[in-house]
Specification:
The complex is a heterodimer of chains A (278) and B (336). In chain A, 23% of the residues lie in helices and 29% in strands. Chain A is of the alpha/beta class and 278 residues long. Chain A has a seven-stranded mixed β-sheet, with helices on both faces. A six-stranded antiparallel β-sheet of chain A has the order 4-3-6-1-2-5. Chain B is of the alpha/beta class and 336 residues long. A seven-stranded mixed β-sheet of chain B has the order 1-9-8-7-6-2-3. Classes of the chains: A alpha/beta (278), B alpha/beta (336).
């Protein structure tokens, strides 16, 4: 075993899904069987994915720990590394370091209703915990997923949205911004906060998990508060820029908190105690 | 270990240096052609300075190099292979003649690199390092070690600490097992202590670090940060010269099929440091970055790393192109 904490696992791209014109999902398998055997992670954790020669980029593990033998990641082509990743194909090699960070406290949530609210590219950081709790379905009460994107083509995981929609034990509400619908769109039309307000889910015995662009969070929080959600029952993830992933490089700090060690999962109660540096 | 006190004659120092350099690399301060004081590996003994107040860069490069390969790799069409770094090949190094502030910084760096999981690149280097420190017999207005709990003759971080005597000889405190092994190896060069007076400079206290840490608990939103950072040009020099700044970047470089992933010193003073790919920047203006620098060293680190992130060497002030003086600022901060 190497002492080198910066040395990534070598992963083979097993499968590529083009989610939207600029969003891809990779299924990655460990090249070394021993690494695959030893690797474990929990919902909410993240890793450093790399293209050798281009560098590393930070995303959550988007697949559930209940699905063994592989990990998945979903990313948007945005910078140097994600553009290089997007140019790769099945069979190519990437690097992966992880898992890092804390986890969604899903054991504490047992026996409760779960309300997932996501916007755009923020469904991937939530997909892991969504599948994790669906795969342990009997431990949770109602599971509701509210997912919005600017346009129909910006919705990620379209094949899974269909699966969730068809399951009787999951309530899925999808929405697109006004003007983003297609002629055959059957979901809601409107911004996530408004759709949530109309849906008016009960806050009774319910945990809300919220991920999305800052503007969505800003307008969704008052709706959740109006519905009676306590700050400690609302969870989100922070996404500060990182390099090392384990509390050394000094980049992701929000006040005294390391997003990479103390997060990325935070309750809204914790978020309120932080300076606004995220 | 109980401290052993010895005398080492001026002329014996060179013998000690020669003896040590037979088996180990030595990192020592020399006066460069541009009159700046810089650390070099294995300089000639005659080039080493014993009279400098502060080197331009601190000695931290010896345990946390400016640029350090994390591994190298080779790419083919679809394959990549990693060639790991053999951390056991890190050589034994003697840091020679570094001042107490620089030596106290190693424990602070350890509190960053070794909290939670251990960074072996750093810890192996520190493990292989022997520090022969030199008390300060000179100081200037930039020095403020006494404001951060240290002193010109602090032994913290030294394995052997030398202090100059009036007649040019040195007293040597042998402080650790590592120091003791040098004493055992060169016993004939160490003599019983003399009655000669040790030359130790005086560094005046400028602020109380306890009070600064206390004040920072409620100072986050204070206009102080904007008012006191308007002239900051975000050049990052303060972080590069600092003995305790440990923030780093990780990048890849390739030449054909071969490449390396390395880390290099970075600075929280740079706008790019926290910039997200989306364009959002959690610390988008310089005042927020200046606040982060002070908060990190005097508030967050005492709480999270149980150590202050400053040794009072004064380099960030003496090296600042726009004369931002950290000791003056902290003095002012205490009064807000």
């Amino acid at each position: 075993m190497s002492d080198n904490i910066y040395k990534p696992y070598l992963m083979e791209i097993d499968n590529v899904i083009e989610e939207t014109p600029d969003v891809r999902t990779f299924r990655l398998k460990f090249k070394n069987a021993e690494d695959a055997e030893k690797f474990t992670f929990k919902a909410g954790q993240f890793g450093e994915y790399s293209v050798f020669g281009e560098g590393e980029s930070t995303f959550c593990v988007a697949s559930s720990p209940t699905r063994k033998g592989y990990i998945e990641c979903t990313f948007r082509k945005a910078g140097r590394v994600t553009n290089a990743l997007a140019n790769l194909e099945a069979g190519d090699t990437v690097g992966f370091r992880g898992p890092y960070g804390n986890t969604f406290p899903i054991e504490e949530w047992e026996g409760k209703n779960l309300l997932y609210i996501a916007g755009g590219i923020a469904l991937p950081p939530m997909r892991c915990v969504i599948w994790n709790t669906i795969d342990l379905r009997e431990k949770y009460k109602d599971i509701t997923i509210v997912y919005g994107a600017r346009t129909v083509s910006d919705l990620v995981y379209k094949h899974e949205l269909k699966e969730w929609e068809e399951r009787p034990d999951i309530r899925l509400v999808t929405t697109v911004d006004p003007g983003g619908q297609t002629p055959d769109w059957k979901g809601e039309i409107g911004f996530v906060p408004m759709v949530l307000e109309k849906l008016a889910p009960s806050s009774e015995n319910t945990i809300a998990i919220l991920c999305g662009p800052p503007v969505m969070i800003k307008f969704t929080m008052p709706v959740l508060k109006k519905l009676g959600f306590q700050d400690k029952d609302i969870y989100t993830t922070l996404e500060n820029r990182m390099k090392c992933g384990f509390g050394k490089c000094g980049r992701c700090n929000v006040g005294k908190v390391f997003v990479c060690k103390d997060g990325p999962v935070f309750s809204y109660e914790q978020i309120l105690s932080l300076p606004e540096e995220y | 270990m109980e401290t052993t006190r010895k005398l080492i004659r001026k002329q014996s120092l060179e013998k000690l240096y020669k003896l040590l350099s037979e088996t180990r690399k030595i990192y020592a301060p020399v006066i460069a052609a541009d009159k700046q004081v810089e650390y070099k590996y294995n300089p000639a003994f005659s080039d080493i300075t014993f009279d400098h107040i502060r080197s331009t860069l601190s000695a931290k490069n010896v345990v946390f190099p400016k640029v350090e390969n994390l591994f190298t790799f080779t790419n083919s069409k679809t394959e990549s292979t990693i060639n790991d770094i053999d951390l056991n090949k890190i050589p034994e190094v003697i840091l020679w003649g570094a001042h107490p502030c620089d030596n106290a910084a190693f424990d602070i760096l350890r509190s960053i690199f070794c909290w939670d999981i251990t960074d072996e690149f750093f810890s192996k280097r520190l493990e292989k390092l022997v520090v022969i420190g030199l008390s300060c017999h000179q100081s200037d207005d930039y020095c403020f070690c006494t404001s951060v709990g240290l002193a010109p003759e602090s032994s913290k971080g030294s394995d052997i600490l030398l202090s100059r005597l009036q007649n040019g000889d040195y007293h040597a405190q042998i402080l650790t097992e590592k120091g003791n092994s040098i004493l055992n190896m060169a016993g004939e060069l160490f003599e019983p202590v003399s009655a000669e007076k040790e030359l130790i400079t005086e560094v005046k206290g400028k602020f109380s670090h306890e009070q600064v840490t206390e004040k920072l608990k409620t100072a986050f939103e204070n206009p102080f940060w904007v008012e006191n950072s308007l002239r900051c040009i975000g050049c990052g020099a303060c972080a590069y010269v600092c003995p305790t700044c440990a923030c780093f970047d990780i990048q890849d470089e390739t030449k054909g099929k071969n490449g390396k992933r390395y880390r290099s010193w970075d600075s929280c003073g740079f706008g790019l440091f926290t910039l997200h790919t989306s364009g959002h920047n959690p610390r988008e203006v310089q005042s927020q970055r200046w606040r982060q620098r002070i908060m990190h060293k005097f508030s967050y680190m005492p709480e999270r790393n149980e150590s202050l992130g400053c040794v009072g060497c004064g380099r960030c002030s003496s090296g600042c192109p726009v004369d931002m003086n950290i000791a003056e600022q902290l003095e002012a901060l205490q009064k807000i």
